Amino acid sequence: MDRGKYLVEVLAHCSACHTPRNIMMAEQSSLNLAGSPLGGWYAPNITPDKSGIGDWSQRDLVTYLKTGHLVGKAQAAGAMAEAVENSFSLMTDDDLNAIASWVKQVPAIPTAVANIGLQSPRGGVDINSVLTGQGTLTDSSTTDGAKLYENACASCHGHDGQGTDDSFYPALTRNRAVSAFGPQNLVMVIVEGIQRKTSNTDISMPAFAEQLNNAQIASVSNYVRSRFAGIDDKVTAQDVQTLRDGGEPPFIMRYINWLMTAGILVMVCLLAAFGIGEK
């Protein structure tokens, strides 16, 4: 267990991404690994609560860390895809099991979850019948989410979001980026795509940052969340731009000028008071 603690808390520094921070940007130890915004993305709750990874087995965790993919549960993207490709996928099974054992025993912390609508099960399709590539944006001006999905996404994920039988193209009906409490990760996957290589897989989803504008990305995100998770989001073009820019800046950055001014005034007052006291 000590090995797992060392790997999680020191070498892998999981809390740097997955633990929320206070207004001074220090990690909130009482919310260790409970999820946090991360440069436009959202590093999810990885505590053993049902709102986190409570329904994951130790083998599930090891599989995800080694491959970046867990059928019906998660796909690594953004910074996590980089961590899988450059770190976790290169570790021994013993070390991965040590990490999984430690994460599974940290305090479970409940966090908010989305109110997901009931979805009818849909079967996958044969990957050989899937049109490869990123689809064709036949109408580059539309902001109709359904049309954008059919033109840019359905060729891989399926018209009903069912993915392929082998899950190479994942289902959107069983996808945590789609059904998460917030839309951040879905939006950022559309913006940045996914690039992830391991010893036996090479995953690539195209980025649409240059092909779709903010209003179109907002529209297709809302459509996917509504159609495949029953979540009624109202992502706006401004929301997309904010995520593109790295997300909402932390408190200390939003008010740095005011804080510096207040600090200077306090110093001036203290110096003045000290000078008066000496007289």
Automatic annotation (TrEMBL):
Any Pfam family matching the protein: Cytochrome_CBB3
Keywords: Electron transport, Heme, Iron, Membrane, Metal-binding, Transmembrane, Transmembrane helix, Transport
Entry protein name: Alcohol dehydrogenase cytochrome c subunit
Listed PROSITE patterns: CYTC (PS51007)
Taxonomic source organism: Serratia fonticola
Highest taxon, organism lineage: Bacteria
GO molecular function: electron transfer activity; heme binding; iron ion binding
Gene name of the record: adhB_4
Transmembrane segments: 255-276
UniProt domain Cytochrome c: residue ranges: 1-107, 140-228
